[in-house]
C-alpha cells in the first residue's frame, strides 16, 4: 500500500537541506522559486539537477526558456527565501523586487551576494510525478566573495544554518 501524503511530509520534514533560489527566464520574463531539492549531478560534463513543481510558473518558464539559475543562499537571505516560496503574501511578479539581480549569459537571473550561483542551460526535463527533474548544464559558476560561509538551511519547518562539529 502506498504511503499517505502526511507520511511523506512527515518524513521529508527531517530531510534537511541547503536553501536555494532557482530561477529561469524566457526572453524578458523571469520566474523563480525557493528550492531545497537541488543536487550536484555530474562533474564531467558539469551538471546539476533541480526538482521543480510542474504546476508552478517557474516550471513553465524553465520549460519554455530552457535556462536555469541556481543561487545558494546565506542566512541574510531568509526574507528573500520566504518571498520566493510565496510565504510573505507578495505576488509572483514582485519576487524579484527584493535582492539585487543580474542577467547571466543563459538569460537566467542570478543573485548578487549568493554564496555561489550556477548559470545553466537546460539539458533535459524528466517528468517524475508532481515534480520534474530538471538537469542543467553548468555554463558558469560565480563564487561569492568572503571566506565565512553561513548557508541558509531548512529542517523540520525551521530556518537555520550549518554548525561545524568540534
Ligand atoms: C524551504 C523550502 C524548500 C522548497 N523546495 C522546493 C523544491 O525543491 N521544489 C519546488 O518545486 N518547490 C519547493 N518549495 C516550494 C516553492 O518554493 C513554492 O511552492 C513556490 O511558491 C512555487 O513558486 P512557482 O509558483 O513560481 O513555481 C520549497 C519551499 C520551501 C519553503
Helicity level, as a percent range?
A: 10-25%
CATH superfamily: Electron Transport, Fmn-binding Protein, Chain A
> H/E element string?
HEEEEEHEHEEEEEE
Overall strand count:
12
Secondary-structure-based class equals: mainly beta
Give the strand line-up of the largest sheet: 3-2-6-9-10-5-4
Chain-averaged pLDDT: 97
Rg, rounded, reads 16 Å
Beta-strand content: 35-45%
CATH class: Mainly Beta
Which ligands, by name, code or SMILES, are bound?
A: flavin mononucleotide
Which runs of at least 5 residues are low in confidence (pLDDT < 50)? none
Pfam family, one: Flavin_Reduct
GO molecular function, one term: riboflavin reductase (NADPH) activity
Protein name: NADH-FMN oxidoreductase RutF, flavin reductase (DIM6/NTAB) family
Keywords: Oxidoreductase
What does this structure look like?
The protein has one domain (18-147): Electron Transport, Fmn-binding Protein, Chain A (Pnp Oxidase, Chain A, Roll). The chain is 14% helix and 43% strand. The protein is mostly beta strands and 166 residues long. The radius of gyration is 16 Å and the shape is globular. Strand 7 (101-103) and strand 8 (109-111) form a beta hairpin. The strands form 3 sheets. The chain has a 7-stranded antiparallel β-sheet. A 3-stranded antiparallel β-sheet has the order 1-11-12, with no helix packed on it. Strands 7-8 form a two-stranded antiparallel sheet. It contains 3 helices and 12 strands; from the N terminus they run H-E-E-E-E-E-H-E-H-E-E-E-E-E-E. Bound molecules: flavin mononucleotide (FMN). The site of flavin mononucleotide (FMN) has 19 residues, from strand 3, strand 5 and helix 2. GO terms for molecular function: FMN binding; riboflavin reductase (NADPH) activity. This is NADH-FMN oxidoreductase RutF, flavin reductase (DIM6/NTAB) family. Keywords: Oxidoreductase. It comes from Kordiimonas lacus. Residues 12-161 form the Flavin reductase like domain.
Amino acid at each position: 500500500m502506498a504511503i499517505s501524503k502526511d507520511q511523506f511530509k512527515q518524513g521529508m520534514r527531517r530531510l534537511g537541506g541547503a536553501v536555494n533560489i532557482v530561477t529561469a527566464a524566457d526572453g524578458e520574463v523571469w520566474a523563480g522559486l525557493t528550492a531545497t531539492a537541488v543536487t550536484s549531478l555530474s562533474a564531467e560534463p558539469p551538471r546539476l539537477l533541480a526538482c521543480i513543481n510542474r504546476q508552478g510558473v517557474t516550471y513553465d518558464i524553465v520549460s519554455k526558456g530552457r535556462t536555469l539559475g541556481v543561487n545558494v543562499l546565506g542566512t541574510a537571505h531568509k526574507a528573500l527565501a520566504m518571498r520566493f516560496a510565496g510565504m510573505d503574501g507578495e505576488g509572483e511578479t514582485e519576487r524579484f523586487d527584493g535582492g539585487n539581480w543580474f542577467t547571466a549569459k543563459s538569460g537566467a537571473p542570478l543573485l548578487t551576494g549568493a554564496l555561489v550561483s550556477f548559470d545553466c542551460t537546460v539539458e533535459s526535463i524528466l517528468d517524475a510525478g508532481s515534480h520534474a527533474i530538471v538537469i542543467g548544464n553548468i555554463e558558469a559558476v560565480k563564487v561569492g566573495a568572503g571566506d565565512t560561509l553561513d548557508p541558509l538551511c531548512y529542517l523540520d519547518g525551521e530556518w537555520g544554518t550549518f554548525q561545524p562539529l568540534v
